[in-house]
Design goal:
- The chain has 239 residues and is of the alpha+beta class.
- It has a domain of 70 residues: Arc Repressor Mutant, subunit A (Orthogonal Bundle), CATH 1.10.10.
- Helix content is 42%, strand content 23%.
- It has nine helices and eight strands.
- The strands form two sheets. It has a four-stranded antiparallel sheet. The protein has a four-stranded antiparallel sheet with strand order 5-6-4-7, sandwiched between helices.
- It is globular and about 50 Å long.
- It starts with a helix and ends in a 7-residue tail after the last strand.
- GO terms for molecular function: DNA binding.
- Its main location: cytoplasm.
- This is Probable transcriptional regulatory protein FBGL_11830.
- It is found in: Cytoplasm.
- Belongs to the TACO1 family.
């Protein structure tokens, strides 16, 4: 198995699942998708993907429809996607994806978290190169073979295809998202969820005390309403 498999297996997905803000974050994704490509999922592939993710997160259909309607209102605030970079204690690189309607607020908040937790906020490009920007799709495994699918989807950009308890996962470079989404839809293969992740090229092993230092910063950042995802180069123990 490759790095995407190891990343998915080792990452503490419980953080995302435990966040009460999941629906709020999906709501932001809906606003950005509608502002970018309109409210019709048939003609807006980004919105189609967000709706699939909302369904996977058990977000009520009424909530989704309301969010689409609200996003179509020109008075609704737009969110700008901003990437923050820096270092946690013990040389761990941190990459933070945010969606904000107030850049000054977000910058000030992120800087304060680094300062309070003995981290260092970096400049643009200071750690981004340490991560591979990938896209992923989860599809049902019934009637499909992961190995055959991998061979078939290499031509569309797929780099890793593997099975877990919840289905088959396809990983590819970030810019292959649209191509793979279109091919899955052409084949009438259900997309259960999709998204983007940044996989660290190299990870660093820390002791328990050092891990606690890094976790303190990560948890502080993740509590921020503007933060969508946090990635780092700390080796994570399987749980």
């Amino acid at each position: 198995m490759g790095r995407a498999f190891e990343f998915r297996k080792g990452r503490k997905m419980k953080r995302w699942a435990a966040m009460a803000k999941t629906f709020t974050r999906i709501g932001k994704d809906i606003v950005m998708a509608v502002k970018e490509g309109g409210p019709n999922p048939e003609t807006n592939s980004r919105l189609r993907a967000v709706i699939q993710n909302a369904k996977a997160a058990n977000m009520p259909k009424d909530n989704v429809e309301r969010a689409i309607k609200n996003a179509s209102n020109k008075d609704t605030a737009n969110y700008k996607e901003i990437l923050f970079e820096g270092y946690a204690p013990h040389g761990i690189a941190i990459l933070i994806e945010t969606a904000s309607d107030n850049n000054n607020r977000t910058v000030a908040n992120i800087r304060s978290y680094f300062n309070k937790c003995n981290g260092t906020m970096g400049t643009q490009g200071s750690v981004e190169f340490m991560f591979d920007h990938t896209c992923n799709f989860r599809i049902p495994k019934e009637g499909l073979d992961a190995e055959e699918l991998e061979l078939e989807f290499i031509d569309f950009g797929a780099e890793e295809v593997f099975e877990d308890e919840d289905g088959i996962l396809i990983y590819a470079p970030f810019n292959s998202f649209g191509t793979i989404q279109k091919e899955l839809e052409n084949r009438s293969i259900d997309i259960l969820s999709s998204g983007f992740e940044r996989i660290p090229q190299i990870t660093k092993k820390l002791n328990a005390e050092q891990i606690a230092d890094v976790e303190k910063l990560i948890e502080k950042i993740e509590e921020d309403d503007d933060v969508m995802n946090v990635y780092h180069t700390m080796e994570e123990n399987e749980e």
